[in-house]
Design a protein that fits this description.
The protein is mostly helical. It is 82% helix and 0% strand. The mean pLDDT is 96. Bound molecules: zinc ion (ZN) and fe (iii) ion (FE) (3 copies).
């Protein structure tokens, strides 16, 4: 049965549940990404973001609390799909370390873009509802996602150069 929803606040709580679920998936996936990465900077970046993600989950619990709600996950098929692309690529390809690292920067970047979109939408809704504490908490998470994306992109540019120089040239 479809659930009735007529209040923007219900949508805010629902979408908060979606990113809460996604961050829960990521807090488990990031240490795996760190292990898969061979490049020291990329590995350290994933480790650092895993730690940040624990704080992001705390912020989300505080955001639920500020709304007078219990933290509740809503299954996020998008994050499961992004994770599945990663899992399937690595299962289906025998790569060099350089190519795997380069792949991981892209897989990480897809994740950060999804999170940035989710937090941006949530902040817009929370601001419209004058939930200033929620805005503050979500902006902290958003800034961390943007910084993580910037680092991944910089690793990606460097690794694309390295991987490219190993390929055959004409
Ligand atoms: Zn719902
Ligand atoms: Fe996150
Ligand atoms: Fe989602
Ligand atoms: Fe992130």
């Amino acid at each position: 049965m479809p659930e009735t929803m007529t209040d923007p606040r219900q949508l805010l709580v629902h979408e908060l549940g979606d990113i809460y679920y996604a961050e829960g998936v990521l807090v488990k996936a990031l240490p795996t990404l760190a292990e898969e990465a061979q490049d020291a900077e990329l590995r350290a970046g994933f480790e650092e973001h895993a730690e940040e993600t624990r704080g992001q989950l705390d912020n989300l619990r505080l955001a639920f609390e500020a709304l007078g709600e219990k933290p509740q996950s809503e299954r996020c098929p998008a994050i499961e799909g992004i994770k599945r692309e990663h899992d399937e690529f690595l299962a289906d390809h025998e790569t060099s370390d350089e190519i795997r690292d380069l792949f991981l920067t892209g897989a990480g970047g897809r994740t950060e873009h999804y999170e940035i979109a989710a937090y941006s939408g949530l902040i817009t809704m929370a601001r419209a509802l004058n939930e200033t504490r929620v805005v503050e908490l979500l902006e902290e998470n958003l800034e961390q996602e943007k910084a993580a994306l910037t680092k991944l992109e910089s690793c990606g540019r460097r690794l694309a150069g390295v991987a490219g120089s190993n390929g055959t040239s004409n």
